[in-house]
Design goal:
Largest sheet: 7 strands, mixed
CATH topology of the largest domain: Aspartate Aminotransferase, domain 2
Radius of gyration: 21 Å
Strand content: 15-25%
Number of helices: 9
Order of helices and strands: EHHEHEHEEEEEEEHHHEEHEEH
Number of strands: 14
CATH architecture of the largest domain: 3-Layer(aba) Sandwich
CATH class of the largest domain: Alpha Beta
Strand order of the largest sheet: 2-10-9-8-5-3-4
Bound molecules: pyridoxal-5'-phosphate
Distance between the termini: 30 Å
């Protein structure tokens, strides 16, 4: 088996893949595949209900919030959030901490006025700006908890006078968060929760219905809530595999337990990056992500040979994003610490060989 450091779609627990494969052939012994049963069947309703309850349980979702499994990826949420929450004569605050945040800002322009409170662009997004004010008359404040491409992560969430909207696509369920602090959280499943094809939305019901805009059914959170994520045919398989992954997470002790493992994995890898003279980190240490670890070789000519060594060691997916270069090791929930040790061994072997 390979050590899968891919950024997304990312690694899933092996036992989840096995169960998913079984469900494709014969779901729970019913003689039918998960791919060929009605979404209105008792079997699928049980899967969706369990997925929703696991989200509520694992993330301690308080009363007054709805949990949805939608389609269209996090990118659709970039538009759906302002569609539902931003009045056409209103403004919304955005923190520009990377490519995904910029894309969210771009989409908001179709619906109202996004106000960028701060941007990390001049700094190539190597740090997350902290010096800004959130306008109190904004409809909401949009942030990205983990910047998948640059390897920065908010270690603390800002206090916001207006509903806080957060794109958690690449660190959902990796650490304990207080859902009550947020108006809406969304995450494409394929980084840390399941396969591509479904997007988790956790929304505080009371922030909805404040604009008088007419919204087509599929883009309307209210319709999706009323339909229980089944206004139309939901992505049954993606929801099934997400549910299996959430079950796996619960069996491991839940979010607090995985957070400890994630801290240990990140600490081990950053320690090696800082110690090994052949490598260096990219981001400012205080904003370093515990999910996507970006680093460079001290000597740019070492990039290719190090990639080759990784390949020989079964270490895959470590090439940096095309817009950032260098290396990016994504160490999502399902990646075992033994894979991190394999990467550290490769770094040490590389240094030894080239000294
Ligand atoms: C991957 C990613 C996205 C885009 O997700 P899609 O599901 O492909 O639309 C958005 N935001 C963040 C933080 C991401 O990591």
């Amino acid at each position: 088996m390979k050590h899968n450091f891919g950024a997304g779609p990312g690694i899933l627990p092996h036992e989840v893949l096995k169960q998913a494969a079984e469900g494709v052939l014969d779901l729970n012994g019913i003689g039918l595949s998960i791919l060929e049963i009605s979404h209105r069947s008792a079997e699928f309703e049980a899967i969706l209900n369990e997925a929703v309850s696991l989200v509520k349980e694992l993330f301690n979702v308080p009363a007054g919030y709805s949990v949805l499994f939608l389609q269209g990826g996090a990118s659709t949420q970039f538009a759906m959030v302002p569609y539902n929450l931003l009045p056409s004569d209103g403004k919304a605050a955005y923190l520009d901490s990377g490519v995904w945040a910029s894309k969210a800002i771009k989409e908001a322009k179709y619906f109202g006025e996004p106000v960028v409170v701060a941007t990390g662009k001049e700094n190539n997004y190597r740090s997350i700006p902290t010096d800004y004010e959130i306008p109190a008359d904004a409809a909401y404040f949009h942030i990205t908890s983990n910047n998948t491409i640059y390897g920065t992560q908010l270690q603390q969430f800002p206090k916001s006078p207006v509903p806080l909207i957060c794109d958690m696509s690449s660190d959902i369920f990796s650490r304990v968060v207080n859902v009550a602090d947020f108006g809406l959280i969304y995450a494409g499943a394929q980084k840390n929760m399941g396969p591509a094809g479904t997007t988790l939305v956790i929304v505080k019901d009371e922030i909805l219905g404040k604009t008088d805009r007419k919204i087509p059914a599929m883009f309307n959170y209210q319709t999706q809530i009323e339909g229980g994520s089944m206004y139309n045919t939901p992505p049954c398989f993606a929801i099934y595999v997400s549910m299996l992954t959430l079950r796996w997470l619960k069996a491991k002790g839940g979010v607090a337990a995985i957070e400890k493992e994630n801290n240990a994995k990140a600490a081990a890898l950053y320690t090696e990056i800082d110690r090994n003279p052949f490598f260096k980190g990219v981001c400012v240490p205080e904003d370093r992500s515990k999910m996507n670890v970006c680093f460079l070789t001290e000597n740019p000519d070492h990039e290719k040979p190090f990639l080759k060594l990784c390949d020989e060691r079964g270490i895959v997916g470590v090439k940096g994003h095309r817009s950032a270069g260098g290396f990016r090791a994504s160490i999502y929930n399902a990646l075992p610490i033994t894979s991190v040790y394999a990467l550290i061994d490769a770094m040490q072997e590389f240094a030894e060989k080239n000294k």
